[in-house]
Amino acid sequence: MSASSPLSTRNRPEISPRHGFTESHTENMLRDSVLLGAALSDGLTALILQDGTGTWYRDSSGLSRDQLAALESTLTQEPGTDAEGPLEREGLQMVKTVSLVNGCHQVIGTFCVLSPVPLALSEAQLAGLALLAEHIQTIVKMDQQKLETRAAPRPPAAASFVPGLVHELGSFIFGISANLDAFEARFADLDEVKTYGANIRRSLDRMGAFIVELREYGYPQRLSWSPLEPEPMLREVFEHQRSLAEEKNIDLQIRIDGVLPALQGDREGLRTALARVVDLVLHKEEPGGRVVISVAPGRQGNREAIFGHLDFSFEPFMNIDPARLFEPFYYRVSGLGRLALPGARRVFESHGGTLTAGKGPDGSMRISFMLPSEVAYPLRSATQP
């Protein structure tokens, strides 16, 4: 960076970045990242981190308080809504925006390069900024893990405990099954052995099916993590479940209000989870009843999201606590496994969403779900001068 660069004469603005971090070394690493970005690009830089409640961390190199506020306004501004945007009024041009994402591929913030004069970045500079973005994402992830570590003591996380349990149970079943095979072969001429052996094998088969559910619950698989359109997926679930609704004489309806934003995730996993929820409702609904699936776009804080719910009769669930419907082993319905419903909730949560149950309008029951959009908030495309 040359001595004549505008960065060399600007002081750091009096803007506190402390909006969530509790470790000073984490703040220092983020501050160093902002300065490193300025050195790489030879421009003005800013780092803005967001969650569902809004902006929780901000810092810049070379920007005043008003300029940083203008930048935040620009990042959340719909394209084409203002001929002269907030940045232009502050005498700045957007050179480059780099979106920062978390493990669920949701945007958690933006790193920006700006300039008061036209500025073009080389391929080497762009590659350096991409590496810097990965570095910032790692810092945020590490800090979040420290926050979880500082939380109150809790049972082992499913991601670490359940795989071990699955392995041990699988080994046990394999040993019992092998011994049963040998026992049946040794005493094949005894009728009582066949009778009792069949009973034992049915129990082993049920335990094997449970282990499969347990594995899915402990770590929801993301075999095809990619952008997806939610409406075709929802209609596919609807069509798949319509035969069961017709068989039980249930009026199954789907209502999609507006254009749903794109999602990021495992299409098959989400489709299966939604199908399990609808299947539960249809199995419990009385003949002649009505089940309505309503879905619409919305926002969760600064994030675009889709919100949906299923309304159905409350009578079949009269003796259960709706708030506990998706707890492991709390509720089981014929046709679904012991962890099918908790597993469905785990899939939604692994995509950054929610799946809950509660009382609905007019004495009905409602299962509600939310899935965040592919991006957390709209970003104006960076224009090269």
TrEMBL record:
Per its UniProt record, what InterPro entries does this chain match? HATPase_C_sf
Region named Disordered: 1-24
| Compositional bias ranges of the Polar residues kind | 1-10
Task: Quote the biased-composition stretches of kind Basic and acidic residues, using this chain's numbering.
Answer: 11-24
* UniProt-listed Gene3D superfamilies: Histidine kinase-like ATPase, C-terminal domain
SUPFAM superfamilies, per this entry? ATPase domain of HSP90 chaperone/DNA topoisomerase II/histidine kinase
Its protein name is: Histidine kinase domain-containing protein
What lineage does the source organism belong to? Bacteria, Pseudomonadati, Acidobacteriota, Holophagae, Holophagales
